[in-house]
């Protein structure tokens, strides 16, 4: 019952926030990052490490604010290259703060503490900020009468969801050969290939029926988007699965009854969004 309630309420709410975009979507991303970071720090605690929540939360929040500012959601957009400078500054300050804390209140493994906290902020806030960049991508040069960034963002979510569903159903029904047992013992080759195929077919269909305009996304680009969502999205899931196995837990948290934690729901997108943003900026946009 609780699992179905999360689906019935959560999916329409998420779709609505994606449609709104702007500050509402940035606030959602910020909440997702901070909740995911909370789960990550809890995993570190289970692994007998010493979480350093205050500097970690501050750095993550500052990074998300920098991404939002970069796309003009917190006032005028900064100059070109300012996001990179802000990113570097925040990471330096985080490292200095963590080092100071280790001097004042040392943990049993200081360098492990430093590296795991830096990784957490880079993974969750660094990658998470790309959710905002993709949703705010500027396709105005193509002069189309609809919000292309909204359509692309929604397509990425749908593709990841369908990939996960296809991989689970086909793997459970036909899967024999395991894929990466060290990370996830139940994932199979058949399931993984099926998920990739479904993601690629979905992108092709979205292009064929005009949801993703062919003037921006020709056939080759659609296939690349399918590989990003169906291939690298699964890689994100494997990374998080390995993290959970290392710390001996089934789910990253219990915030979403029947679905686990925030990391369990958004691990694939944490790989899909930054790769999609790089693809947009380096290849798609003129």
Task: Explain how this protein is built.
- This protein has helices at 2-20, 22-46, 53-70, 82-104, 110-135, 148-174, 189-208, 219-246, 262-266, 269-284.
- With 286 residues, it is an all-alpha fold.
- The chain folds into two domains: 22-135, no CATH class; 141-286, no CATH class.
- α2 (22-46) runs antiparallel to α3 (53-70).
- The longest helix has 28 residues, at 219-246.
- The protein is globular and about 60 Å long.
Q: Look at the helices and sheets and give the structural class.
A: mainly alpha
- What is the averaged pLDDT score? 90
Choose one word for the global shape. globular
Oligomer designation: single chain
Secondary structure tally, helices: 10
Number of separate domains: 2
Q: Which range does the strand content fall in?
A: under 5%
Overall helicity = over 70%
Write the layout of secondary structure elements.
Layout: H1 2-20, H2 22-46, H3 53-70, H4 82-104, H5 110-135, H6 148-174, H7 189-208, H8 219-246, H9 262-266, H10 269-284
Helix pairs in contact: 1-2, 2-3, 2-5, 3-4, 3-5, 4-5, 5-10, 6-7, 6-8, 7-8, 8-10
């Amino acid at each position: 019952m609780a699992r179905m309630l999360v689906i019935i309420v959560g999916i329409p709410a998420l779709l609505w926030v994606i449609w709104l975009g702007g500050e509402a979507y940035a606030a959602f991303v910020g909440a997702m990052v901070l909740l995911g970071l909370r789960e990550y720090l809890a995993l570190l605690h289970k692994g007998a490490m010493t979480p350093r929540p205050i500097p970690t939360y501050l750095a993550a929040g500052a990074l998300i604010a920098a991404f939002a500012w970069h796309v003009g959601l917190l006032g005028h957009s900064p100059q070109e290259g300012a996001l990179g400078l802000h990113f570097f500054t925040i990471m330096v300050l985080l490292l200095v703060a963590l080092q100071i804390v280790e001097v004042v209140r040392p943990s049993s493994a200081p360098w492990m503490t430093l590296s795991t906290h830096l990784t957490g902020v880079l993974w969750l806030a660094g990658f998470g900020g790309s959710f905002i960049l993709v949703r705010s991508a500027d396709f105005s040069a193509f002069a189309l009468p609809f919000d292309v960034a909204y359509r692309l963002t929604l397509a990425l979510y749908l593709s990841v969801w369908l990939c996960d569903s296809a991989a689970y159903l086909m793997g459970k029904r036909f899967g024999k050969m395991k894929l990466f047992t060290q990370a996830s013992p139940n994932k199979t080759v058949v399931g993984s290939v099926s998920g990739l195929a479904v993601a690629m077919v979905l992108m092709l269909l979205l292009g064929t029926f005009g949801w993703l305009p062919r003037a921006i996304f020709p056939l080759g680009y659609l296939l690349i988007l399918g590989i990003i969502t169906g291939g690298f999205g699964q890689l994100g899931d494997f990374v998080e699965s390995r993290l959970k196995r290392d710390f001996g837990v089934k789910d990253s948290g219990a915030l979403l009854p029947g679905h686990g934690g925030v990391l369990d729901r958004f691990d694939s997108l944490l790989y899909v969004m930054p790769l999609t943003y790089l693809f947009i900026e380096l290849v798609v946009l003129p």
